[in-house]
Design a protein that fits this description.
By secondary structure, this protein is an alpha/beta fold. Helices cover 45% and strands 12% of the residues. Helix 6 crosses helix 9 (178-202), helix 9 packs parallel to helix 10 and helix 12 packs parallel to helix 13.
Length: 352
């Protein structure tokens, strides 16, 4: 297995140091969905190119990933892709429909359907290896965060056939045929781990596992029906030594379990203050978050006041902290508000 630690050129960066609970010169900042729809330069280069196609063009991926680093001076880049890319790469018939999200032509609901979920090979996503290589050469000491969708969230799209408000079919399968459910998540864990390995081996300095919809579950259901697959993903990439981040929405009641699953850093949405999140997560884990994305639509003074609340809670937590939003950047966010926010966090946390 190549390497046992984060790439050497990024090891001393504030982002990697915060992930490892080490002293930092300032609180590092990056934003989920920073590479994308809130930037006019993104809309320009993506014009006329479908989402999933854009994810397979290495030079375009590199350009889009770099745009927020140039504009906002964030402390880390996040690889531009989508959580369904590895599913598309293994032949699942799906598309991302504007205003809807991922739509699966033939949902996975029977044991026979599982046969369509073959293993992901590095050659299936050669464009990822190429794009990461382009990015790390350009980024230098700035870390690149790779990412993937967690097994539960991928399963919810596959079973429902698209986005779902209540996850009826997903939960029906989970409760009604737990054996099939676990086979499905186990297979998705292998696919997810393979996708993360490709990114790490190409040069990603950290990885984030997005479990966007897992907040729909109770702690008992998470532990029984989801946690084993998440553990499998984190264990599969543990030997590389890169920081592993775990994030979900509406997961306040799951924070301890999500940390227990194997993450080095637990992402927190805006519903739980970081000092309380630290208590729930337990000792030794860094935290990421957690300004409400909607705050950015308020006047600058209000944004700074709410940001100070986040920073104060992080200081009280007494652990490593990466500043982020509590979910992704909203499409109509003013890019200048993001740039001002990065600058404010850097100034407010500058080491004496």
């Amino acid at each position: 297995m190549p390497g046992v630690s984060a790439p050497e050129q990024t090891a001393a960066s504030p982002f990697i140091r915060a992930c490892r609970n080490e002293p930092v010169p300032h609180t590092p900042v990056w934003f989920m969905r920073q590479a994308g729809r809130s930037l006019p330069e993104f809309l320009k280069v993506r014009e006329g190119i479908p989402m999933l196609e854009s994810c397979t063009r290495p030079e375009l991926v590199a350009e889009i990933t770099l745009q927020p680093v140039r504009r906002h001076r964030v402390d880390a880049a996040v690889y531009y892709s989508d959580i369904v890319v590895p599913l598309k790469a293994i032949g699942v018939d799906l598309d991302i429909k504007p205003g809807v999200g991922p739509v699966v032509a033939e949902p996975i609901r029977t044991r026979q359907d599982l046969a369509r979920l073959r293993d992901l090979e590095p050659t299936d996503v050669g464009y990822v290896t190429e794009a990461v290589g382009l990015l790390t050469a350009e980024l230098g000491a700035t870390p690149l965060i790779g990412f993937a969708g967690a097994p539960f969230t991928l399963a919810s799209y596959l079973v429902e056939g698209g986005p779902s408000r209540n996850h009826e079919r997903t939960k029906a399968l989970m409760y009604g045929d737990p054996e099939l459910w676990h086979e499905l998540l186990d297979r998705l864990a292998d696919i997810t781990a393979a996708f993360l390995k490709v990114q790490i081996e190409a040069g990603a300095s950290a990885v984030q596992l997005f479990d966007s919809w897992v907040g729909a579950l109770s702690p008992a259901d998470y532990r029984r029906h989801v946690m084993p697959s998440s553990v499998k993903v984190f264990d599969a990439v543990a030997g590389y030594g890169v920081p592993r981040i775990h994030f979900g929405v509406g997961t306040g009641e799951l924070l301890g379990l999500m940390g227990e699953a194997g993450a080095d850093v637990v992402g927190v949405d805006w519903r739980v203050p970081l000092d309380e999140a630290a208590r729930r997560v337990g000792h030794g884990k860094a935290l990421q978050g957690n300004l409400d994305p909607a705050v950015l639509f308020a006047p600058t003074a209000a944004v700074e006041a709410k940001t100070r609340e986040v920073l104060d809670a992080a200081a009280a937590a007494g652990t490593g902290h990466i500043f982020n939003l509590g979910h992704g950047v909203l499409p109509s966010t003013d890019p200048d508000a993001l740039s001002r926010l990065v600058d404010f966090v850097h100034r407010a946390t500058q080491a004496a």
